[in-house]
Design goal:
Helix content is 39%, strand content 14%. By secondary structure, the chain is α/β, with parallel strands linked by helices. It has a four-stranded parallel beta sheet with strand order 2-1-3-4, with helices on both faces. The protein has a two-stranded parallel sheet with strand order 5-6. The radius of gyration is 20 Å and the shape is globular.
Length: 307
Amino acid sequence: MKKLLSLILVTILLCGCTAHAHQQDGGMKVICTSFALYDWAVNISGGNADITYLLSAGEDMHSFQPTADDIINITTCDVLIYTGGESDIWIDEAVQKGTSGQIVRLMDRNDLSLEEEEVEGMQSAEEDEEEEAYDEHIWLSPARAPEYCKMIADGFIKADPANAAAYTDNLNRYTAALDALNAEYSELSGGTFIVADRFPFRYLAHDCGLEYYAAFSGCSAESEASFETVTFLTDKANELKVPVIFVIDGSDGRLARTIADGCETAPETVVLDSMQSVKSTDEYRGYIERMEYDLEQLKKGVAHAES
C-alpha cells in the first residue's frame, strides 16, 4: 500500500482524474469516504458545504483504489471525514504527509468501537490472528450514529465557525431522527439470524442483543465457503427453522441458495443493505431510509429458539 501511495503521489502532476462525487452547493469543501458518512454530513451541513463522496456508484469500499486526484482532494479539502478502519489505511498514510483542513477520523473514538469477532461456524480469515482489530462498519449502529454525527458537526464548526449555530441546530434535528430510528431497532431485541455472506453487522447485532451466524467476517476477502461452513450454516438454519437466509448488497446469492436447498423450511433469500457499496444515485436514499429498510427485512428473518 505504501508503494502504491508513493506512486500516486509521484504521478499527481502527470495524470488528471476526477473524483467520483455527489455534490451539494456551498462554500466549505468536504470529502467523505463512505456513503453513510456522506449522508450524515449532508444532513448536518444544511447546504453550507460542497460535499464529495469519493466512491463511484457500485464501488465497494474494501476494493477502492485512490487516484491522483483523490489524494489531492483529501489533502486540500476543508474537512475530511473518514472511518479510519482497515479499508482507510491509505488515507492515514496520505494525511500523515500533510493536509490543510480539519480531519474527522471517526474510529478515534475507541470507546465506541467493537473488536472484530469470529463466531461459531464462521470461516476463519487466517490473517493477523495475533493483532487485535476493531470492526470498521461503525455506521451500522443507530445507537452510535449520534456520537459520530457530533464529531462531524464539531469538525464543521472548527472549519466554518461563522455557521456554527446552523450546524448545531441541524445536528440536534438529525439526532432526534436517529434516536427515533434506534428506538425502532430496540424492538428487535433477542433472536438469531443467519447471513450467508460477509458479516458487517457486528455493531447492529451487539446493540440489538441479536445472535448471528455468518459465513465470513465483515472484511473477509473470502468468496467461496468451505464444506464445513456450508454444512454448519445449513444445520443451524434447520435447527432454528429460519424463514430467511440473509445476504448483503452485491451478493450473487449462490451460498444462500445452497443453504436454503438443504433446509426443510425452504427459507427465502433476503438482501440487507450494508452501505459498503451504493449502486445508484438516480433515486437518492439516505442513511435513515436504508436503515429502516434493513429493519423491515430483519423483522422477516429473526428466528427465536422457542418457535
